[in-house]
């Protein structure tokens, strides 16, 4: 398969928005988890705001990534990857990423809802606090796993492009 490098944009702006918003969203939930390890009224107030911002960022990432997937990835990138030397980067990694990706903003909403609804009760209620910390940590782990999977998928695309050029 001959692939013309001029037919595609190698760095799509939606990929940049998707990755940037996702990573800042992940960092926001890391901040939330840290704030809740030793909560005070001001830390809970700050965690509530940061979690809200994190939810917004993760939904932005979700929408940008989903739109890119539906408009460009399926028609341009996927066939190139599947014809290249690393087809498993789509078959395994993209398929896994699709399913985990769907959950992240909703886990973030659960974390934000816990912090918001329990408020200062989190200071004394260790169980509720640890639930919020663990869900926030899960958001962070999943979001950074998405970044790693994105790297593997991009490598599959780059490998396929290199194979056609070399």
Show the helix and strand layout:
Blueprint: H1 13-37, H2 41-83, H3 88-118, H4 121-124, H5 126-165
Transmembrane segments: 15-37, 49-70, 100-119, 131-153
Keywords: Membrane, Transmembrane, Transmembrane helix
Detailed description of the structure:
By secondary structure, this protein is an all-alpha fold. It has one domain (12-165). It contains five helices and no strands. Helix 2 (41-83) packs antiparallel against helix 3 and helix 2 (41-83) packs parallel to helix 5 (126-165). It starts with 12 loop residues before the first helix and ends with a helix. 34% of the residues are buried.
How would you summarize this macromolecular structure in one to three sentences?
The protein is built from 5 helices and no strands.
Short descriptors:
166 residues, mainly alpha, 86% helix, elongated, disordered N terminus
Count of DSSP-assigned helices = 5
**Residue share in β-strands:** under 5%
Rounded to an integer in angstroms, the radius of gyration calculated over CA atoms is 19 Å
* Proportion of residues in helical segments: over 70%
Low-confidence stretches: 1-7
Structural category is mainly alpha
Q: Compute the number of strand runs.
A: 0
Order of helical and strand elements:
HHHHH
Specify the overall morphology: elongated
Largest sheet: none
Q: State the separation between the terminal residues, measured CA to CA.
A: 12 Å
In total, how many domains does the architecture comprise? 1
Oligomer: single chain
Determine the mean pLDDT: 91
Keywords: Membrane, Transmembrane, Transmembrane helix
